[in-house]
Design a protein that fits this description.
The complex is a heterodimer of chains A (about 600) and B (about 300).
Chain A (H helix, E strand, L loop, with lengths): L3 E9 L4 H14 L3 E8 L7 E9 L12 E4 L2 H5 L12 E5 L18 E5 L1 H9 L5 H13 L3 H11 L5 H20 L18 E4 H12 L1 E6 L6 H10 L6 E4 L3 H13 L3 E6 L1 H16 L4 E7 L16 H6 L9 E2 L6 H16 L2 E7 H5 L1 E4 L17 H5 L25 E3 L13 H13 L11 E4 L6 E5 L2 H15 L4 E6 L1 E3 L3 H8 L4 E6 L5 H9 L5 E6 L8 H16 L10
Helix pairs in contact in A: 1-4, 1-5, 3-4, 3-6, 4-6, 7-8, 7-12, 9-10, 16-19
Chain B lengths: L29 H16 L6 E5 L14 E4 L5 H11 L4 E7 H7 L1 H10 L3 E7 L34 H8 L3 E5 L4 H13 L4 E6 L12 H7 L1 E2 L10 H8 L7 E7 L7 H11 L19
Parallel strand pairs in B: 1-2, 1-3, 3-4, 4-6, 5-6, 7-8
Antiparallel strand pairs in B: 5-8
Classes of the chains: A alpha/beta (about 600), B alpha/beta (about 300).
Chain lengths: ~600, ~300
């Protein structure tokens, strides 16, 4: 029995690969299993190669793991195009369609001998039962239900539900295809046991992806306006709100470009509404000027960047964490904009709510740095209870304050009550021009300095928000592991493995990346002699950002890889082991041998 | 349609819309006349200043919201329209004015005009067209005439000017007019009519730059050459005639309404309101959106 399995499958675009992955995850989630599903495609608009990676577990998982336990190749050509995304190792069970006529000892894998290789007549079974090769994915679902012992009843129900509008014989054929796979699996048991143990709690989970959950959280947070422009991999946020926000009285405007998208959001916020836009790297570059406007006009808004490979068009369909510098430093002028990063799709709920609350509280644009992995992967999540969600609204002027209203009044907190059109007595001039307390334009250097002080100091309370950090492990551990965003999910698991193996490691994951909370890092680094910062970008952007603000111990090194190259828990554990050895040898500073 | 935008709530005079800020414009700038015309139009309409949002971009003319008592927003270069649209969609009860120069509307922000028009959001957009960049001290603008020498075109412009009137008619604008501060009361009337039009209204104002503009564009020259469209018996419901007259931009100075669609199209915000009603918006708690993630056995 297994508590954790990683399944990878690839075929051509028309094979329904992704649908199969989603069906398997949904069925498992109904039975109470946890899982994470990522999809990957070739660059073609339709057709081309298509794949999924699904990790199933009896307890919560935050990444898609490493080497595959089960690999399913409907076509070897398609499978091999995914390279390191679907790694086969010595412990992998390899299943492929016998239509390829490749003998089991001649499969096209170089330098690796999988534990078991099975040639299965997948297409043949599909034709015999479903009448065409279109049922191949259903046959595979049957195989998985048989070999894993997961999801039989919900998958059969799912097939019937999905085809409910079709004719009876279509449903019957699909069910037959499913049973063909199931019976084949029962008749051909695997030499390596791939059955899953029962889940820790057999209660049904939510299945979420980061983009949809971000959009839903925005509605819960009180967002009444969204405007954006289609861009991979963030578009699902706009599409979700285009369907749902109207039901709650809100408005979605598909803008003519990225600038107009955030422009309309700035306008809606000026008009008193909570508003959001979402984009990816190229759109972020275009939105920068408007972010500066919202900062100086002190208008709340949320801007989501679902990061992809960059620069420029880069790799639109794959994750990277290379926009951190841009999020922090893109503005001209002296300015702080809070930057938040979710560590999983499930985490997107809390982070989006926090982004709206922070925007409202501090009258500022807040950037949510998601990435393609968090945005588009599907994962199981515990049901969300919105009744415990705290919602913050901007501080509006009181009747008394409206009698002699001063929009940018200097206050102790730096936060001034904000009116909006329609509010009698609250009339003021908002502007991108430097202004005095009442909003009148000024070019006076002293006023500019005072306003900068107001606009920057108002963020000071954020620096002690320890709740925006994940900190695990013994406080006196000499070895630190630091990561952020989707890669943090890899590190959370890595630190557990490392500690089980006796390494004295602690973990820090900032969800608030900027402003940098100097004191929290300083406290964390007190005991640290060596460590590792793990992130999915070439320049080690978080590491370098921390070095700018914090005394980072000299023995901290980096594991930084460009986007779409997976980082696995075992790879991180391996580096931690070398670091531990170096420390045991009394080396505090020299780089650990890699 | 926006009934509030046309309902006099109480008597206001032009002075009620004038703020205490002193304009930075050069003495004799055409924009002084434009802001006077706006005060007058707004007092005729009678909406209280706090129900008006006045949005501009960057440029000499874009300082204009600050000289009114409305809620003003002096934004970034070329982006008055996207921001104004966000405001109107967030609160359709507001009276929303947009303003800027020809550079704002037809150069850096030119891409937004077509889309504001096709959405038909009820905004009145006033472009103060002076055919030059005044704030940056005298460079070519998108409406500068071919051959113009300036600090950025020492050897003369080699580009044809944009024709704002023909552009917006081509984009499908349903209210298109032109005025000049040389005829302040005529301009005030045009602005008032634009505001009362239920949908996007475009008003080009020949507002001369006294410092960098040409002789033949100054108010005195305009007074001599201008001709009202009424005086030539133009029928503003005739789109082809309007287009024909608009094509004389740069040669003849016509003032008045070029085109006003007799049966205006639905506004974006009007359709949004209908959608909200059809979906019974507001009848469910926001948390209901989370039900979408529940799995059904």
């Amino acid at each position: 029995m297994n508590s954790d399995l990683v399944i990878g499958m690839a075929g051509s675009g028309g094979d329904g690969i992704v649908a199969a992955g989603e069906s398997l995850l949904t069925a498992a989630a109904i039975e109470g299993y946890h899982g994470v599903l990522t999809k990957s495609f070739g660059p073609q608009i339709r057709g081309g190669e298509s794949s999924f990676r699904l990790r199933l577990s009896t307890s919560k998982v935050l990444n898609t793991g490493g080497t595959l336990d089960i690999a399913v190749a409907l076509s070897w050509d398609d499978f091999l195009r995914f390279g390191g995304e679907l790694p086969i190792g010595g412990d992998t069970t390899v299943i492929y369609d016998s239509n390829s006529k490749v003998p089991t000892d001649k499969i096209p894998l170089v330098g690796v001998k999988p534990a078991e290789v099975l040639m299965v007549p997948i297409e043949q079974m599909a034709r015999d039962t479903g009448g065409s090769d279109r049922s191949k994915n259903t046959v595979v679902l049957g195989l998985m239900a048989g070999w894993l012992g997961v999801g039989k009843a919900p998958m059969e129900a799912g097939i019937k539900k999905r085809l409910a509008k079709k004719e009876a014989d279509v449903i019957e054929k699909a069910v037959k295809a499913f049973y063909a796979g199931l019976e084949y699996a029962e008749a051909h048991p695997l030499s390596t046991d791939r059955k899953m143990s029962p889940p820790a709690k057999p209660t049904a989970k939510f299945v979420v992806d980061g983009n949809d959950l971000c959009a839903a959280a925005a509605i819960v947070a009180g967002c009444d306006f969204f405007s954006g422009y289609p861009i991979t991999p963030s578009t699902e946020i706009m599409q979700f709100l285009g369907r749902e926000i109207w039901k709650y009285g809100g408005t979605m405007l598909q803008a003519e470009d990225e600038i107009a998208g955030i422009g309309a959001v700035v306008g809606a916020s000026f008009a008193g509404k909570k508003a959001m836009t979402a984009t990816s790297g190229p759109g972020m570059s275009l939105k920068t000027e408007m972010l500066g406007l919202a900062s100086i006009a002190e208008l709340p808004l949320v801007c989501v960047n679902v990061q992809r490979g960059g620069p420029s068009t880069g790799i639109p369909t794959k994750a990277e964490q290379s926009d951190l510098f841009q999020a922090v430093f893109s503005a001209h002028g002296d300015v702080i904009r809070p930057v938040l990063a979710p560590i999983s799709a499930e985490d997107m709920y809390g982070v989006t709510i926090e982004a709206f609350n922070m925007a409202e509280q501090y009258q500022t644009p807040v950037i949510v740095l998601s990435d393609q992995e968090v945005g588009q992967r599907k994962e199981t999540a515990e049901p969300i209870d919105a009744s415990t969600t705290e919602i913050v609204n901007r501080r509006k002027p009181s009747e008394q304050e409206l009698e002699k209203y001063v929009r940018f009044r200097f206050t102790e907190s730096g936060i001034s009550p904000i009116s909006h059109p329609g509010m009698k007595g609250g009339n003021y001039l908002a502007s991108g021009i430097e202004h005095n307390e009442s909003g009148a334009p000024t070019a006076n250097g002293e006023m500019h300095a005072r306003m900068n002080e107001k606009r920057l100091n108002k963020f000071n309370p954020l620096r002690s928000r320890k709740d925006l950090f994940v900190i695990q492990g013994p406080a006196d551990a000499p070895i630190a592991l630091i990561s952020w965003g989707s890669v943090a999910g890899v590190c959370i698991e890595a630190v557990e493995i490392a500690r089980r193996q006796g390494m004295n490691v602690k973990l820090l994951v900032p969800k608030l990346l900027y402003p940098v909370s100097e004191a929290i890092y300083a406290d964390f680094f007190m005991s640290v002699k060596r460590g590792l910062v793990v992130e999915q970008n070439h320049q080690a952007q978080l590491f370098r950002l921390l070095r700018m603000f914090v005394d980072v111990p000299r023995g901290i090194e980096t594991l930084a890889k460009s986007g779409s190259n997976p980082i696995t828990p075992l790879e991180v554990v391996d580096r931690l082991r070398r670091i531990t050895l170096a420390l045991q040898q009394g080396k505090d500073r020299e780089p650990a041998e890699v | 349609m926006s009934t509030l935008a046309t309902r006099p709530i109480q008597d206001y005079t032009a002075k009620d819309y004038k703020s205490e800020l002193k304009p930075i414009w050069c003495p004799g700038c055409g924009d002084f006349g434009v802001v006077q015309a706006i005060y007058r139009a707004l007092s005729n309409i009678g909406r209280p200043p706090h129900e008006i949002a006045f949005i501009s971009g960057i440029g000499c003319s874009s300082r204009i919201p600050g000289y009114t008592t409305a809620y003003g927003f002096n934004t970034v270069h070329g982006r008055a329209l996207p921001i104004a649209q966000g405001i109107k969609l967030a609160n359709p009860d507001l009276l929303v004015l947009g303003a800027g120069g020809d550079g704002d509307g037809f150069s850096i922000g030119g891409g937004h005009v077509a889309h504001a028009i096709r959405r038909n959001i009820d905004i009145t957009y006033i472009v103060m067209d002076n055919q030059i960049y005044g704030l940056t001290k005298g460079q070519l603008s998108p409406t500068s005439r071919r051959g113009l020498t300036s600090v950025s075109s020492t050897h003369g412009s080699m580009e044809a000017p944009v024709n704002p009137l023909a552009y917006v008619l081509g984009y499908g604008a349903e209210f298109v007019a032109q005025g000049t501060p040389a005829d302040m009361s005529g301009l005030a009337q045009i602005i008032e009519e634009g505001i009362r039009h239920p949908g996007f209204a475009f008003i080009n104002v020949q507002s001369p730059c006294v410092t960098y503009g040409m002789e033949d564009q100054q108010l005195k020259a305009q007074k001599a050459s201008m001709q009202t469209l009424a005086s030539i018996n133009h029928d503003p419901s005739n789109i082809l005639a309007a287009m024909d007259l608009a094509h004389q931009y740069g040669e003849k100075l016509y003032t008045g309404v070029f085109y006003k669609k007799p049966t205006p199209s639905p506004t974006f915000e009007g359709q949004a309101r209908a959608r909200h009603e059809a979906l019974q918006a507001g009848s469910r708690p926001r948390a209901a959106v989370l039900d979408l993630f529940k799995l059904k056995k």
